[in-house]
Each structure stands twice: as C-alpha cells, then as structure tokens.
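Predict the 3D structure for this chain.
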Amino acid sequence: MVKITLETILKARNISRYELAKQTGIRYQIIDNYYKNRVVRYDSYILNKICTFLDCKIEDIITFEKE
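Done. Predicted structure below.
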C-alpha cells in the first residue's frame, strides 16, 4: 500500500496545510487530500511542488507498506 506521510513532515517542521497551499500555489483542498491520504492518483506536478517547497525527497513524503 502506498501511503502519503505529509502530515508527519508538516508537523515536524511546524508548517500548516494552509501555509503549504499558500507557498506552493496548490489549492488547499488538494493539499488537504494529500495530508489526509485520500489521494488515489498521485500528480507528479503536485508532488514536485511540495518536495521543492519542503526541500525534501519524494521518499520523505511517500512510503510503501506491504499488506
């Protein structure tokens, strides 16, 4: 199972979903869906903007867990 761990990195860096949306230009609802792991198809453009702003690697916000 692929899981977004955006919540973890945002809490560690004390960044709100609103701030992330504002700084990246991504709509809050989209950020919220990634934050709550409600995304079925991952958009590389969105992930790129998030990783660029957070200065992290993709594996810092996405994990894979065998079921």
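The CA atoms of residues 14 and 56 lie 15 Å apart.
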